[in-house]
């Protein structure tokens, strides 16, 4: 392996993400919980993953389902107790899996003690933990808008001041410029690391530093006006470095920062390996914008060339310098087969998409239900949706395009598509709960799409994920190899190769629902390579070419 490629456990692992409320209900009250997680640890291990990332488990009023934290050191009672968490942590460790917590410190809940104190008066010691500002006469302190829609300021009559919230109004932004706030953040990190957790996924961490004086924005976006003043703020480097030097560097842990509007050039400032490295990796969003403009509500026809351009950019610019975090689903994104794949060719396209992203260089994250190819779940009535951002955005969009069209947009774009309960079996409520009714919708397709039916089927998406994760783990070339794209101009397939020492690998993915022809690039003699992964039974190669069937994928290896 080249000298600039450094091995590390966080590079070699695959991570499974749990959104606890919909994962598994262990006590029959209809809400997912830690007891449920404990009962599924063997299942998670059976996927071949090396770590679990938990979306927030902390005490929270659940206005944004845990991303509004009221107490960073206790568990949401619906999910269990700190003892239950420790049992899960031990259970995971015993099985050789690490545990990554979600660190949400751009904002707290409006029910957090700090915020309740800060409201008491501008002489309260916690007042400066948040951004409290006077209005400009009858106007708000500035023209920023929440990324969930609506103004980013909420008025408090008692104080005659407004507080800043970049997300829901129940999520006031913390003032990270206050050194006391940074000390609090470091204490929270230490609390969990001392307990034995192995790292953090840091929620919208690139938003924590706002431009001084919170200046007006000259732009107008219905969601997130003002974002240029905080998406990559002036003290971001400094604060991340402080967290690293004072806490993270003292533990054997990993970090992945969520980073909207991120580019590889900017990312390298934070994740380039060496003494100045602040985070291990970043979740950027560019590859989730191949079917939309910035936000999945603004839908456009799927553009494979755009997707390939983004991937190639990140794969090549980071190589040997920083590390990619790879994902195609999470709790904020609609299901991938319903977007970049095909519900008609659900099994084929789910396997192809898995190969497409997991055979790249980086650490793959797999979101609950992705491994069985769960699909979007359109709801008939806006009142059936539970996600605060869906409801806010719907209410804005409705005024422009009308209710019917707005609901249709929600069907495609809502985060709730990813938040229906995990489909464990074809039993009542998909085997998620023994309660009469789960807290949220069960996708009616659970009778055909569920874990139990895929366990015994060697050709299932589930067993394909297992095979793929194992293949990656056993082949350094998948993890550490360099990357080259082929046939960029084609808008029906994505082909790339990987290289390590004297080995090479070719990955071919069809994004078409028709047959398409593929000619192997020069230097790749298919008859000499080994077909190591495929989602159809192999069919003939003639003159170093073959026909790909709908959403077919093949991986060849030369060693
Ligand atoms: C992140 C989370 C998302 C949450 C938001 C505010 O984007 O992934 O679920 O709503 O931050 O915390
Ligand atoms: Ca429960």
Briefly say what this structure is.
By secondary structure, the protein is of the alpha/beta class.
SSE order and pairing:
Blueprint lengths: L8 H4 L2 E4 L15 H6 L1 H6 L4 E4 L3 E2 L11 E5 L6 H13 L3 E6 L9 H6 L13 E2 L19 E4 L4 E4 L14 H17 L3 E4 L33 H11 L7 E5 L5 H8 L9 E3 L8 E2 L1 E5 L4 H15 L6 E2 L19 H13 L4 E5 L20 H14 L1 H11 L37 H5 L5 H14 L1 H5 L1 E5 L6 E8 L2 E8 L5 E4 L10 E5 L10 E4 L4 E6 L1
Parallel strand pairs: 1-2, 1-15, 2-5, 5-9, 9-10, 10-11, 14-15
Antiparallel strand pairs: 3-4, 6-8, 7-8, 12-13, 16-17, 17-18, 18-22, 19-21, 20-22
Helix pairs in contact: 10-14, 11-12
The structure holds alpha-D-glucopyranose (GLC) and calcium ion.
Protein model, in words:
The chain is α/β, with parallel strands linked by helices and 559 residues long. Helix content is 26%, strand content 17%. The protein has 15 helices and 22 strands. It has helices at residues 9-12, 34-39, 41-46, 82-94, 113-118, 179-195, 236-246, 264-271, 304-318, 346-358, 388-401, 403-413, 451-455, 461-474, 476-480; strands at 15-18, 51-54, 58-59, 71-75, 98-103, 132-133, 153-156, 161-164, 199-202, 254-258, 281-283, 292-293, 295-299, 325-326, 363-367, 482-486, 493-500, 503-510, 516-519, 530-534, 545-548, 553-558. It has an 8-stranded parallel sheet with strand order 11-10-9-5-2-1-15-14. The protein has a 5-stranded antiparallel sheet with strand order 16-17-18-22-20. Strands 6-8-7 form a 3-stranded antiparallel sheet, with no helix packed on it. Helix 10 packs parallel to helix 14 and helix 11 runs antiparallel to helix 12 (403-413). The longest helix is centred in the middle third of the chain and has 17 residues, at 179-195. The structure holds alpha-D-glucopyranose (GLC) and calcium ion (CA).
């Amino acid at each position: 392996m080249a000298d600039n490629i450094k091995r590390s456990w966080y590079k070699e692992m695959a991570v499974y993400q749990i959104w606890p409320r919909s994962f598994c209900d262990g006590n029959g009250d209809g809400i997912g919980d830690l007891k449920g997680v404990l009962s599924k640890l063997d299942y998670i291990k059976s996927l071949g993953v090396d770590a679990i990332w938990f979306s927030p488990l902390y005490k929270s009023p659940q206005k944004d389902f845990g991303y509004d934290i009221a107490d960073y050191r206790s568990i949401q009672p619906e999910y269990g107790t700190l003892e239950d968490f420790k049992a899960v942590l031990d259970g995971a460790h015993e099985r050789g899996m690490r545990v990554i917590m979600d660190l949400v410190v751009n904002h707290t809940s409006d029910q957090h003690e700090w915020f309740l104190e800060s409201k008491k008066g501008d002489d309260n010691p916690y007042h400066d933990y948040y951004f409290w500002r006077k209005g400009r006469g009858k106007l708000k302190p500035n023209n920023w808008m929440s990324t969930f829609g609506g103004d980013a300021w909420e008025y408090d009559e008692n104080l005659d001041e407004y507080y800043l919230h970049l997300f829901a109004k129940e999520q006031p932004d913390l003032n990270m410029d206050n050194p006391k706030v940074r000390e609090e953040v470091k204490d929270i990190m230490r609390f969990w690391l001392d307990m034995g957790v192995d790292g953090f996924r840091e929620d919208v961490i690139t938003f924590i530093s706002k431009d001084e004086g919170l200046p007006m924005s000259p732009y107008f976006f219905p969601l997130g006006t003002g974002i240029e003043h905080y998406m990559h703020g002036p003290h971001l480097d400094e604060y991340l470095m402080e967290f690293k030097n004072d806490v993270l560097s003292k533990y054997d842990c990993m970090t992945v920062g969520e980073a909207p509007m991120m580019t590889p050039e900017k990312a390298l400032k934070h994740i380039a390996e060496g003494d100045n490295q602040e985070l291990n990796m970043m979740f950027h969003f560019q590859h989730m914008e191949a079917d939309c403009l910035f936000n999945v509500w603004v839908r456009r026809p799927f553009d494979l060339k755009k997707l390939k351009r983004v991937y190639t950019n990140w794969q090549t610019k980071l190589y040997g310098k920083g590390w990619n975090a790879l994902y195609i689903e999470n709790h904020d994104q609609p299901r991938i087969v319903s977007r970049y794949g095909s519900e008609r060719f659900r099994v084929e396209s789910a396997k192809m998409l898995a190969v497409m992203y997991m055979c790249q260089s980086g650490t793959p994250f797999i979101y609950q239900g992705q491994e069985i190819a769960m699909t979007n779940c359109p709801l008939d009535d806006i009142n059936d949706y539970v996600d605060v951002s869906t409801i806010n955005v719907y209410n804005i969009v409705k005024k422009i395009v009308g209710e019917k069209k707005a609901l249709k947009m929600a069907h495609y774009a809502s985060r709730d598509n990813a938040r229906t309960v995990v489909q464990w079996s074809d039993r009542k409520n998909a085997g998620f709960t023994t309660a009469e009714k789960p807290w949220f919708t069960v996708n009616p397709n659970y009778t055909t799409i569920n874990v139990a039916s895929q366990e015994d089927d060697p050709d299932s998406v589930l067993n394909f994920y297992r095979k793929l994760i194992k293949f990656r783990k056993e082949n350094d070339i998948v993890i550490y190899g360099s990357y080259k794209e082929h046939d960029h101009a084609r808008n029906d397939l994505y082909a790339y190769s990987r290289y390590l020492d004297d080995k090479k690998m070719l990955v071919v993915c069809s994004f078409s629902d028709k047959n398409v022809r593929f000619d192997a690039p020069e230097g790749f003699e298919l008859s000499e390579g080994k077909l190591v992964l495929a989602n159809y039974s192999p069919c003939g190669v003639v003159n170093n070419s073959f026909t790909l069937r709908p959403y077919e994928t093949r991986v060849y290896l030369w060693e």
